[in-house]
Amino acid sequence: MYIVCLDMEGVLVPEIWIAFAEATGIPELKRTTRDEPDYDKLMAFRLSVLKEHKLGLKEIQDVISGIDPLPGAKEFLDRLREETEVLILSDTFTQFAKPLIRKLNYPTLFCNTLEVSPSGEITGYRMRVKDSKLSTVRALQSIGFETIAAGDSFNDLKMIKAGRSGFLFRSTDQIIRDNPDIPAFTEFDGLFEAIMKAMS
Q1: By CB count within 10 A, which of 6, 118, 132, 147 is most buried?
Q2: Burial, 24: exposed, middle or buried (Cβ in 10 Å; 0-12, 13-18, 19+)?
Q3: What is the pTM of this model?
Q4: Which DSSP letter does residue 112 get?
Q5: pLDDT value at position 36?
Q6: Which residue among 9, 15, 91, 156 is the active-site one?
Q7: Of 7, 15, 91, 152, which residue is the catalytic one?
Q8: What's the CATH architecture for 2-13+70-112+126-199?
Q9: 53 near 169, Cβ under 8 Å?
């Protein structure tokens, strides 16, 4: 049996932190996992910037409410789910993802959770499991699934390389250059066809 594991931000929906950076005029928050491979370092930086500007969960959720899936993403996901099991593996947080998952027709999402004070300040975060994307792929393989994965960032590379097949989707030039063995796509039709071929 096959299961397709997809990253969410940058693949199916816009990058939440970039959208928030643009809405608030804080360019430092445009830094994502495409730029920083160390997720803990990235999140520590983000939380310090939020604290400095006195911004909390509500302000981020207000921006997220106006974000729509990338053009063609919902149709791609619906089509893919007709053919195979699909799991969204993301390093985002449940408090961010709910409205986006609704707009994607409620695919299954595994992600993390934020620690939020009564005042709404984001004080920390809890990862679902260490190295969550690779750990999840390995767990799926241990119960009989063949995994196929696609993502765009540094934190997707391990899950992409661990499965039967893996693909980069709308990734950076640097990541594509550094991983010439991973097929890279920019359009949903091309990615869909590659996934179907991998399962044939």
Answers
A1: 6
A2: middle
A3: 0.91
A4: E
A5: 84
A6: 9
A7: 7
A8: 3-Layer(aba) Sandwich (3.40)
A9: no
**How does strand 85-93 pair with strand 2-6?**
parallel
**Rounded to an integer, what distance in angstroms lies between the CA atom of residue 161 and that of residue 150?**
10
d(CA 151, CA 89): 9
What is the CB neighbour count within 10 angstroms for residue 122?
20
Residues with Cβ < 8 Å from 152, sequence gap 6 or more?
7, 10, 11, 34, 168, 169, 170, 171, 172, 175
Grouped pLDDT means (10 residues each) for the chain, 200 residues = 96 95 94 85 93 95 96 98 97 94 96 96 93 96 98 95 97 96 98 97
The whole-number pLDDT of residue 135 equals: 97
Q: Specify the pLDDT at position 154.
A: 92
Place of tokens 């989707």: 169
Domain ranges of the chain: 2-13+70-112+126-199
Known catalytic residue: 193?
no
Catalytic annotation present for 9: yes
